[in-house]
Structures are given as structure tokens and as C-alpha cells.
Amino acid sequence: MSIPRHLRYTWDHEWLVVDEGNATVGITAFAAQALGDVVTLRLPEVGTWVEAGESCGQITSPTAVSDLYAPASGRVLEVNTALAGDPGVVNTAPYTTGWLFRLRVENIAGALSADAYAAHCAHTRGDRR
User: Fold this and answer.
1) Residue 80 pLDDT
2) pTM listed for this prediction
3) CA distances from residue 94 to 8, 33, 48, 106, 118 in whole angstroms, order as listed
4) Residue 61 pLDDT > 70, yes or no?
5) What is the overall mean pLDDT for the chain?
6) Phi/psi of residue 120, each to 5°?
7) CB neighbours (10 Å) of residue 70?
């Protein structure tokens, strides 16, 4: 399983990378594998405020509906509209073209390093929470 070192992670298997106060957010390869084939996404709307650690959307696969948790607090700047036509990109490219949304970061709470996230995954065994 790939865990890029330049990203930060959450206990709920989301990732983020911050550049000049703006964060790009997605789900990890671990989460994508645990979910199976992503068939629909409900992402936060542009302009809405999301709160770190709280549900801000949903990811649906044939076997589960999972909440998407905000890895940071801030205002949503953009959503990946390309995923509407092909949500499976979240499975095939979770760290690149499968990103979910971007936000203007106001607060990041409890982001994990790549090493800490790898240790978390080793203990999680596929559970989302």
C-alpha cells in the first residue's frame, strides 16, 4: 500500500496537502481499497464551511456508504467535478486525479505523519473508524 510521505493523514483515512494556506483533500489508498469500487460521491459544496473531524460528505460503494470527514477546518474553494462522471478514479488514483476537494485552511487538528499513519493502518485492519 502506498503512503506518500509529503502528505498528512487523519485517523479516518483522509489525506491533505497544504500549499500557501490552501489544502487539497482526498481519501487514502487504504480507504479506497477498504471501500471497494466507488460508485457515487457526495462532496461539500463550494463556499461551504467544513469543520475538522466532522462529516462533510459521503462515499458510496456497492457494499457500503461511508462518511467523508474534513481533515481541516475551512471554506471549500473547489470540488473535483471530473469525479461526477467517473468516481472510480478515487480507487485508481486516490493521491493524484482522485482528489476530492480543496479548501482554504483555518485549522488543522491532529494530522498524522506518513509514519504515524502507516502504524495506524497496521492496527486498523480495514475498519474506517
Assistant:
1) 98
2) 0.90
3) 14, 10, 23, 24, 16
4) yes
5) 91
6) -60, -45
7) 26
